[in-house]
Every structure is written in structure tokens, then in C-alpha cells.
Amino acid sequence: MSQETISTGHTFQLPAQLSASIVGAVFPADRDAVATLLPAGLDPIRATRTRAALTVLAVSYDRIGEDTIDPYDEVGVLLPAVETGTRTWPYLSGLRRGVSGYVYTLPVLTEPARAFGVDIWGYPKLVADIDLRDKGRTRHATVTADGQHVLAFDGWRPPTIPARLSGYNYTVKDDQLLREQTRLSGTVGIWPRGHAELAFGEHPIGKRLATVTIDERPLYTVAADCDFEIEAGS
């Protein structure tokens, strides 16, 4: 176990411990377009026979560390990926690796939340206005940054069961590719071909992501209410 003090003066123990409510979706996406958004050393997974994947996760955190910073919301766009040369399998890899991979953008509500991700791991966080609401089994999220619309997401929350899962994220910090092991315990649900909608806006990040052609219908939707752990990057 180690400690990291971020630019806001808050100190965290690593692995970082969080508690979160997550709703997301994994969309089949154009493989070549996804590949252009990945850093050197990573390749897209084969989510289907011909497609890669793009994942959106709308997350509400209610505990970060030992209540080290205030709760916050975030909406992340991940590109499921593996290290170059690693073989992946259609559908199986989409299921196993769909919520792991390279974190392309991670808007958050507050400056401490931004510094927490950027300073420790190099997560591409930016402070944004996030409207995250649950209505019935659907989570709605819109993100605006610098007065420009970044994205809008609606995802159906599938039923959940108790589970323990592990995964990983990739980030770039100080020009180095880092891999962060993640662990999750709580209740988790995955629903094939569930309902979700995703649209990108006029913000430069939205415009760049809009160059990736994604299927209207997701490969699956996912939800979790869980404790979440992030290791130091390596």
C-alpha cells in the first residue's frame, strides 16, 4: 500500500477505494476508427467478427477513499483494447473486456475529482457540467464543457446479482502507457442487446468521437452498485 497526495492537497491510499453506482453500454464500433484513437502499444478488441467496441459508463460515486473528497458524477468513454499482439475473440472478448480498456475521456463534476484521476494515473479528466438522472430503470446523462455539448447517453439498467469482477484500464501519463488493475464487488448486471442511446455534440471531444461509426443497438448494457478498487499504474 502506498500514498499519493494530489494537487488539491488531498492524500489517498493506493489501491484507491471507491463506492459507485454504474450504468453503461458497450456499442459495436468501426475497428479502424477506434484504432486511430488508441495510443501506441494498444489494439482494439474484436467485439464481433468485424467490429471493435466503444463503451460509455455513467457513474455516480458516493464514497472516494475515506471520504477524502466529496462525492461526484462522471461519464467515461472507454475504447476496449488490449496490448498489441494480444489475441481477442469475437463476442467472448466483447463480453469479458467490454468495460476494460483505454480511457479516452472522463468528464467529472469537480476539480478535486479531476485532480484525483489526472495526478495519480493520468486519466483524461476534465471538469464539466454533468446532468445525471435515473428515471425508472433508465439512466440519463448529458455532458457540457466550456459551454459546448460533449455527449448525451441513455442506458437501461439490467437486473443485477451479487458478483466479484476484475478488469483493467489503460492511461497515458508523462508519455508512458500505464495499466491499472481494477476490482469490483457488489451487484452486477449484463443484458445482451439492451436499450441504450448515445449521441455526441459540438465540443471538440464530441466531434472527434463522432468520427467513430457505432451501431445504434449496443452489444449489451451493464449496471453495478459496488465497491470499486483501482491499483497504482504500472
Characteristic key phrases:
4 helices; 234 residues; mainly beta; 12% helix; globular
Condensed summary:
Helices cover 12% and strands 56% of the residues. The chain is mainly beta and 234 residues long. A hairpin with a 2-residue loop joins strand 10 (129-135) and strand 11.
Provide structural commentary:
This protein is mostly beta strands and 234 residues long. Helices cover 12% and strands 56% of the residues. The chain contains four helices and 16 strands.
Give the overall shape: globular
Helix content: 10-25%
Low-confidence segments:
none
What is the tally of beta strands? 16
The span between the termini is: 14 Å
Q: Based on helices, strands and strand pairing, what is the structural class?
A: mainly beta
Q: Into which percentage range does the β-strand content fall?
A: over 45%
Strands of the biggest beta sheet: in what spatial order? 3-5-6-8-13-14-16
The run of helices and strands is EEEHEEEEHEHEEEEEEEHE
Mean pLDDT: 97
